[in-house]
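**Paired protein data**
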Amino acid sequence: MDTTAASTQPTASTRPTAPLRVAVILGSNRDGRFGPVIADWFLARAAAHPGIETDLIDVAEADLPTRITFSPGPEEAGRLAAVSERLAAADAFVVLTPEYNHSFPAPLKTLIDWHSAEWQAKPVAFVSYGGISGGLRAVEQLRQVFAELHTVTVRDTVSFHNAGALFDDEGRHRDPGPADAAAKVLLDQVVWWGSALRDARNARPYGA
């Protein structure tokens, strides 16, 4: 037996791992929204984290129809397909949400409700922003929604309380240390869950 040849074969622990594909969903389309500031901040932290590729899905750009139907028109079907393909390709999700009236925005719920299998057996993490609550009430409601869609929601979040006062006019966080540390914890958990669930889906299709 040629043990030399056998010893040079890659093993599961030495094979290169494909980057985790993370869809970052910007959940507000309101005029004057603060979401793009949060998105730029988060994407910069994700870019510095090893093993992640991000895809920003902005509900304002997606412009999905609010009437959910099994037979959308050609234009609506095209917009929907463009988003559906990106969600299906993702290994994990990070939802960026404000809090409006103690809840999350309607366009975000529309994007969620148009899809089913695209979410299943994948992790979802949350970055929230708002006034005194920092968007945390919106996150707690989203956890219930995503549980129904067979996801795993990541325990740790990043939240910005009184968000407008935390960033300067250039979109830089005035005291970045704690927020950067929270983002690292969140991203570490996304990578762990995303990698574990991707391996599980590859080994056995998920049965919802």
User: Anything to note?
Assistant: The radius of gyration is 19 Å. Confidence is low (pLDDT under 50) at residues 1-7. The longest strand covers residues 123-130. The beta strands are 20-26, 52-58, 92-98, 123-130, 152-153, 158-161.
